[in-house]
Design goal:
With 725 residues, the protein is an alpha/beta fold. Among the domains are: 167 residues, 3-Layer(aba) Sandwich (Rossmann fold); 87 residues, Helix Hairpins (Orthogonal Bundle); 161 residues, no CATH class. 60% of the residues lie in helices and 8% in strands. The strands form four sheets. It has a seven-stranded mixed beta sheet with strand order 2-3-4-1-5-6-8, with helices on both faces. The protein has a two-stranded antiparallel sheet with strand order 7-9. Strands 10-11 form a two-stranded antiparallel ribbon. α20 packs antiparallel against α27, α23 crosses α24 and α29 packs across α30. The longest helix is centred in the middle third of the chain and has 37 residues.
Length: 725
């Protein structure tokens, strides 16, 4: 069996860049079991038998966040041959806090001090040999962005992994703590691996519930351990966790003082400080952000749509003009296939199945890719430069009130161009809980596909009023915040809020190779997980719209009117489902269903006369429902990619549709009170609807305004080894 290496480090320490440098193209992107966090696995370029796993960015091994739980459980359960701990050399004191905890595990550790170019640029120096001696482990110096020190690091990893030398932490705690740790080891850790004894003793000392449960100790032993801990707390005047934190930082300060030489000469303000004076300015920060995102938006969607339309012409049209020149008309793939099927004398349903069914679904996936590639490249550049960490700080205060992350502003803005792009850009949100919340709510924003039916309703019923479109954006934004506050109170989204790190990295020039590698991985993951859903949904659409009753006989008809199709016939019978929302007729119900294959289909089915047949209140509810419900099956595919779990995906889609139904019903039922409906012959139905709507409103208000209680435990079931391979 090959060598197993775990790559561990703080967020923004250059961990992913170092991983790319060590593995090159020998890597794959997966998800951790049942969570949205990425897991990168690769093989060292110079040693293909050595496998390296990049763990989520963490600040400690205490189980305060899901990322920390995953990293800790992996290290304990998988027992890698060596841990590669990447630390930010420009912020050594903060980075070494995690290093001390990794050394306490008793596993072989190699420390890679990253960003040596920036250290030297500042005029500072790190004595690597002295740092290695003080920590008691191998230390190497690298510049991950410029690929310097990679070969030495690789050789050191293999050497340490193959060594049989026992690892002993060099730092010691105070006499009182060491005495307590010795007693704890004797009381409860007689059968534990000698290399792990100190770490387990430290966790029992700080009352780590997960480790206490894992150690499976008796109540009597727990009481004896508690006496030892309390004795140390009384002597030192602090609680157990604070004692350990204080003494670790004292040790780290001594290490840094002995090996880090700072240039005390007066230097000019760094570029980062100069830039942040403007970018993080109280008044300028938000306008600058919207200018940057407007530029991303302006490049992504027009260029992506142009390339997508070109691909659609190449694949599905009879022919297309090269560079717009009519004299250079090139046959389309669909046109060539049609000719071939005609010459072969094939049955009429076969070309329709291949072209309208299979090819169209493949085309739908391919036409999304140009927009996705452009978006991921631009957002990847901003993410790698360090700018998005500033965005998270700028919007964090507002978004945290709704239970969302500050960086969630990006998916919502991208979602206004395309709900698919908004959903897949949730990759920027690194915390599992925050990413799921963002993915569930991002598609509430009205995108370009929703504008046609919004505009059609405004034209037919509200005299082309601009307020129709403006109100749609207001409804979408309001739904995001209400859903955030609502979901935050549910058990599935509860959890200890993630400590927000206000220590921001320096701006730096991204390495394009790393950006493109990340883009490739994300697009490949989307195609793999969303492609099947898009293919199946397209085939259902083809079958439902091409089979129906013609002249009293059921069968296939390539030119079948939609009103004779299976889809229409089904929704003609269940249209009463939407009666409480004010649009319970077959055409509107079928249009809602067709909207799940693309919101553009709504205006293709419903004419201006159909919209005019609505009462204004019913039209508003029709708009609200289609605005807030799951946009289409491509978004469900994107949700599958982000959620990494079909149950979570179905929950997200069900919540979006359920929320849309509840909001539309409340608007229609409460609105009917002022439209004379209570005096009609159907008054009893309206009264029942109003009572149900009042109950929904009360429940929603209760969930929004009730006090938020943090979850007391953080649970993660680590996948078995078969899943991990």
């Amino acid at each position: 069996m090959g060598i197993k290496i775990a790559l561990v480090g703080n967020p923004n320490s250059g961990k992913s860049t170092l991983f790319n440098a060590l593995t090159g193209s020998n890597q794959s992107l997966k998800k951790w079991h049942d969570v949205t966090l990425d897991r990168k696995i690769g093989k060292l370029k110079r040693h293909k038998s050595a496998r390296i796993v990049e763990l989520p960015g963490i600040y400690s091994l205490s189980p305060h966040t899901l990322e920390e739980v995953i990293a800790r459980e992996y290290l304990l359960d998988e027992e890698p041959d060596v841990i590669l701990n990447v630390v930010d050399g420009t912020n050594l004191e903060k980075s070494l806090y995690l290093t001390t905890q990794l050394l306490e595990l008793g596993m072989p550790v190699v420390v890679a001090v990253n960003m040596k170019d920036m250290i030297r640029k500042k005029g500072d120096e790190i004595n690597i040999k002295e740092l290695s001696r003080k920590l008691g482990c191998h230390v190497t110096e690298v510049c991950a962005v410029k690929r310097k020190g990679i070969a030495d690091t690789t050789d050191m990893l293999i050497e340490v992994a193959q060594s049989t030398r026992r690892i002993l932490p060099q730092h010691h705690f105070s006499v009182e703590v060491e005495r307590a740790l010795t007693e704890i080891s004797m009381l409860a850790l007689k059968t534990v691996n000698p290399n792990r004894k100190k770490w387990y003793a430290l966790k029992l000392f700080e009352r780590d519930k997960k480790i206490t449960k894992k150690a499976d100790i008796t109540e009597r032993t727990k009481d004896l351990i508690e006496k030892e801990v309390k004795r140390a707390e009384e002597k030192l005047g602090l609680d157990a966790e604070s004692i350990l934190n204080k003494e670790r930082y004292e040790y780290i300060a001594a290490v840094v003082k002995s090996c880090y030489k700072r240039n005390e000469e007066k230097k000019k303000a760094s570029f980062t400080k100069k830039a942040d004076k403007l970018i993080m300015d109280r008044w300028a920060a938000i306008p600058i952000f919207f200018v940057i995102m407007s530029a991303v938006y302006a490049v992504t969607f027009p260029l992506g749509s142009f390339l997508g339309d070109w691909l659609r012409d190449v694949i599905l049209s009879d022919g297309w003009n090269f560079l717009g020149m009519e004299e250079m008309r090139i046959p389309g793939i669909a046109g060539l296939l049609n000719t071939w099927f005609t010459d072969m004398g094939s049955p009429s349903w076969l070309p329709s199945l291949v072209i309208d069914g299979v090819m169209k679904s493949i085309c739908n996936i391919l036409c999304i890719m140009p927009t996705m590639l452009i978006m991921f490249i631009l957002l990847g550049f901003l993410e790698s430069s360090g700018y998005f960490k500033r965005v998270a700080v700028i919007f964090d205060v507002v978004f945290r009130k709704a239970g969302l992350s500050g960086i969630s502003i990006v998916p919502f803005i991208m979602g206004a161009g395309s709900n698919i792009m908004g959903t897949v850009s949730c990759d920027l949100v690194k915390n599992d809980r925050d990413k799921k919340m963002s993915a569930v709510t991002a598609s509430f924003m009205p995108d370009l596909a929703k504008l046609p039916f919004i505009t059609a309703i405004g034209t037919a019923l509200f005299d082309n009023s601009l307020l129709t479109a403006i109100s749609a954006y207001f409804i979408g934004a309001t739904a995001v915040f209400i859903s955030g506050m609502f979901l935050r109170k549910t058990s599935i989204f509860s959890g200890n809020p993630v400590p927000f790190a206000y220590e921001l990295p320096d701006y730096h020039q991204p390495r394009w190779k790393d950006v493109f590698q990340t883009v490739r991985d994300r697009c490949r993951e989307f195609t793999r997980k969303a492609g099947l859903i898009i293919l199946i949904s397209s085939m259902i659409l083809w079958a439902g719209s091409k089979f129906g009753i013609t002249e009293g006989e059921f069968g296939f008809n390539a030119e079948l009117p939609f009103s004779d199709s299976i889809i229409y016939l089904i929704f003609e019978n269940i249209s009463m489902l939407f009666a409480p929302l004010g649009f319970g007729n077959a055409t509107a119900s079928a249009a809602v269903f067709m909207g799940f294959f693309g919101k553009e289909n709504i205006t293709a089915i419903m004419s201006e006369g159909d919209f005019q047949s609505f009462a204004p209140l019913g039209a508003v509810c029709f708009m609200v429902f289609n605005l807030l419900c799951t946009p289409n099956f491509a978004v469900i595919g994107a949700l599958k990619k982000e959620m990494n779990n079909m149950k979570w995906t179905l929950f997200a889609a069900a919540y979006q549709c359920g929320f849309a139904y509840a909001v539309s019903m409340m608007i229609y039922q409460f609105g009917s009170m002022f439209s004379g409906a209570l005096q009609s012959e159907y008054a009893v139905y309206y009264i029942v609807g109003i009572i149900i709507s009042a109950g929904l409103l009360f429940f929603m208000g209760l969930m929004i305004f009730m006090p938020y209680k943090d979850s007391k435990t953080l649970i993660y079931t680590f996948p078995n080894k078969k899943q991990n391979k």
